[in-house]
Structure formats: C-alpha cells, structure tokens
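Q: I'm a student working through a structural biology exercise. My instructor gave each of us a protein and asked us to get a predicted structure, then write a short paragraph describing it. Mine is Sulfate transport system permease protein. I'm not confident about reading structure output yet, so if you can add a plain explanation after the tokens, that would really help. Here is the sequence I was given:
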Amino acid sequence: MAEAPVVKWALRVVVVSYLFLLVAWPVGLLTTRTFENGFDSISTALADPSVQHALRMTAVVALSAVAINLVFGVTIALLLVRYEFPGKRALSAMVDVPLSVSPVVVGLALLLVYNGRDGWLGRPLMDHGVQMVFATPAMIMATTFVALPLVIREVVPVLQEIGEEQEQAARSLGASGPQTFWRITLPSIKWAVVYGVVLSLARSLGEFGAVKVVSGGIVDQTETTTLVVERKYQNFEQSTAYASAFMLAFAAVVCIVIVSILRPEEES
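A: Happy to help. First, here is the predicted structure for Sulfate transport system permease protein. I'll explain a few features afterward.
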C-alpha cells in the first residue's frame, strides 16, 4: 500500500531536521566563526609553525595509513571472499572490531604492547633503536587500526557480486595469479577500492583519540592537526583552532564530494 503524501513529507522533515541539527548547523557555525574576519584566521593558522608541522604530520600519518589499509584491505577482502578456511567467520567479525571499539581504548592497547619500558614488543624494538610509542610509527598504527574496515567493507560486496567465473576462465587459459589479479580482478573492483580509499583518507585525517594516547602530544614533534585544534582552543587561541578545524572539515568534505562523483560512475 502506497504511503500517504503527509507521511512522506513528515519523514522528510524529520530526516532533514536531524541532519541539520547534527551536521549542517555545527559545521556551518564552524565555517562562520572561521571566516568572521575574512581570511585572517586561515592566514594566521597557516603562518603558525606548529600548525604547519601538524598539517605535515597529519598528511604523513594519514597517507601512510591509507597505503597500508589499501594493500591489506584488498588482501583481506580477497581472502574472505575467494577462500574457505577454519576461522573465516571469526576473521570477518574481527575486521569490524575497529568500528565498535573506542579509539581511546585502541590507543591504550597499543601503548601497552609497544611502549619502550615494559611493552611486549616495544621493549625489544627499543633495544634495537626503534621507538614506536610517542613517535610517528605508533601514530600510523593507531590511524591504520581505526580506518581498517573501510576498504574491506567496500571491496567485499563487489567481489561477491562479480563472482569468480572470469578469474577461473583466465586461469584455465594459463594466466598466473598476479596476471589474473591485475587484468581481471582489479579492473572489476577498482571503483570500490577508490571509494574505500577516499573514505579511509577522510577517517584518517580526523582521527583524534587513539593518536592522542600514543603520540604524547609533543608540540612540534608528534602533534597532528586534531591535537593542535584541541591545544589551541584550550589556550584561548580560538581563531587558530577554528581555522585548523575548518581545514580538516574542508578536506573531509572534498573526500565526500569525490565519493559522490564516483558513485554514479560505479553504479552505471
């Protein structure tokens, strides 16, 4: 039975109101505060050495995490869809753990394992001159962890949909495993991979909790942009905090726009 027009309009009003109060209004207010004096806040933030360092650190951490998740995400997706093995369902459930666990808990767990004083792996690594915690490696690990499922959960449904008939045909004609992947599998899942990578990048740019725990928040050394936003705001440098937060939000919105542009091409 078709729904009455009044029900449709009521649902639209509820959804639009919900998104406006939860997303559009706060982000719009942030944008307004950032540009209330023109571009002065952006210029001041970009001229701040600590903000410059944080932006570079954010780029290094986010791009490294995306690259790692790209390689391991596609590999795990292929393993889950193309192979049968004991513990497959447990592995599939484990992939979703980063979505359900607080990033602060993730940071604390990494701190326990990789700290150089009494961590199970951190102490042996420290003895060989490799510092994990309160340095870039742990920040990359924490960011990689929280963004892990995004590539996998985009690629798995596409792999299931396309099946493996074409891959079997290629192998029956003598194609090797790498040749089958590069010429058959990858072209079929490329838009899912791109979509997952863009989402992973957006998530990585805004990670705060896990990175805050493992980085130590050392100024001009282990601060990402999200940590700078918190420090500047608490130090009453609110215009710089707003401008830094706007740059992060702008980067995330650009990622979402890219995804929106790619989505119709994928569906067509």
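A: Here are two points you could use in your paragraph. The chain has 13 helices and no strands. Residues 17 and 23 are 10 Å apart (CA to CA). It's a good idea to check both against the output above yourself.
Q: Great, thank you!
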